[in-house]
Amino acid sequence: MSKRNKEVEAEVLDWISKVLGEPLPKGEFEDILKDGIILCNLINNLAPGSVKKIATKGTNFQLMENIQRFQAAVKAYGLPQEEIFQTADLFEKRNVAQVALSLFSLGRLTQKHPEWNGPTLGPKMAEKNERSFTEDQLRASEGHLGLQMGYNKGASQSGHGGFGNTRHM
């Protein structure tokens, strides 16, 4: 079972509150998000119209469908499948840490969507830094002997004393 990080959970809840523009109810992380209503509203704010039907009350099965609709919407938004938590992780509290990580990833992913100018989460995403070299530049490196080629100006392990021994200084 993964260790939960209360700071990450608090950061995620704060981000969700900012995106929705309203304070979230008080309580435990998993209890606030359990019914999936807040999650559906979150993805609808990030990408309007992502979740068409949100069940506000009903049986456990109907509330679990909210979570499944959210999962489908974030996958369409661009979150990789391996970063999306399972429904039972949240609804049955099996792996709440994974839920927090999924939402943190979603918060970072918003940086890659130019249409979103609201709050983001986490460090700035790296941008592509493609480089092109001329044939002359590529050929210039062929004569270079790197240190991995076996030559290091006479450096050796002589005097080391063998594997497992302490180093004498």
Q: Can you tell me about this structure?
A:
The protein has a domain at 6-112: Calponin-like domain (Actin-binding Protein, T-fimbrin, domain 1, Orthogonal Bundle). It is elongated, with a radius of gyration of 25 Å. 22% of the residues are buried. The longest helix is centred in the middle third of the chain and has 18 residues, at 60-77. It is mainly alpha-helical and 169 residues long. Helices cover 43% and strands 0% of the residues. The chain has seven helices and no strands. Helix 1 (6-20) packs across helix 6 and helix 3 (37-46) runs parallel beside helix 4. The chain has helices at residues 6-20, 29-33, 37-46, 60-77, 87-91, 96-109, 135-140. The two termini are 44 Å apart. Keywords: Actin-binding, Calmodulin-binding, Repeat. It comes from Dendroctonus ponderosae (Mountain pine beetle).
Tally of alpha and pi helices: 7
Strand residue content? under 5%
The major pleated sheet works out as: none
The helicity comes to 40-55%
Could you say what the CATH topology of one domain is called? Actin-binding Protein, T-fimbrin, domain 1
Compressed to H and E, one letter per element, the order equals HHHHHHH
Radius of gyration using CA atoms only: 25 Å
Provide the low-confidence segments as ranges: none
CATH class type of one domain: Mainly Alpha
Which structural class should the secondary elements be placed in?
mainly alpha
Quaternary structure classification: single chain
Tell me the overall shape: elongated
